[in-house]
């Protein structure tokens, strides 16, 4: 991954975490890693565990941020969520998957964000 792409991702994730906290989410984990991969943000809101994928874009050339969460990515996130819930003894808890779309301008400043609740 290029440094520019990594930097954009870090900017997007930091902005998304701040937005989520402002919307009443309680951040439990950021960049949770396990043998199956990584989840950007895990939070709690209204007695639900929320698994959040953050997608950051600086142009619409390849579509919207949320459109980049394809079927393969959704399947991976479901497996990661099951692993997380099982490893924490939370298997019976209600959960959902949200996507935070982050737009950056040419100076890599956040120009817009959207939370897509229950994205899949």
Strand content: 35-45%
Question: Could you say what the CATH topology is called?
Answer: Trna Endonuclease, Chain: A, domain 1
Assembly type of the chains comes to single chain
Q: What proportion of the residues is helical, as a percent range?
A: 25-40%
What does the radius of gyration come to?
A: 14 Å
The structural class is: alpha+beta
User: How many strand elements?
Assistant: 5
Ends apart, CA distance between termini? 26 Å
Order of helices and strands: HEEEHEE
What is the CATH C level class, in words? Alpha Beta
Note the overall shape.
globular
Q: What's the number of domains?
A: 1
- Average pLDDT rating: 92
Give, in spatial order, the strands making up the sheet with the most strands.
1-2-3-4-5
Number of helices: 2
Largest sheet: 5 strands, mixed
Contiguous uncertain segments of 5+ residues: none
Using the 3D structure, state the CATH architecture: 3-Layer(aba) Sandwich
What labels describe this entry?
about 120 residues; alpha+beta; Trna Endonuclease, Chain: A, domain 1; 5-stranded mixed beta sheet; 2 helices; 5 strands; about 40% strand; globular; Restrct_endonuc-II-like; UPF0102_YraN-like; tRNA_endonuc-like_dom_sf; UPF0102 protein MOTE_10980; nucleic acid binding
Describe this structure in words.
The chain is α+β, with helices and mostly antiparallel strands and 120 residues long. The protein has one domain: Trna Endonuclease, Chain: A, domain 1 (3-Layer(aba) Sandwich), CATH 3.40.1350. Helices cover 31% and strands 38% of the residues. It is built from 2 helices and 5 strands; from the N terminus they run αβββαββ. The protein has helices at 3-22, 71-87, and strands at 26-34, 37-45, 48-57, 95-104, 110-116. A 5-stranded mixed β-sheet has the order 1-2-3-4-5, with helices on both faces. A hairpin with a 2-residue loop joins β2 (37-45) and β3. The longest helix has 20 residues, at 3-22. The two termini are 26 Å apart.
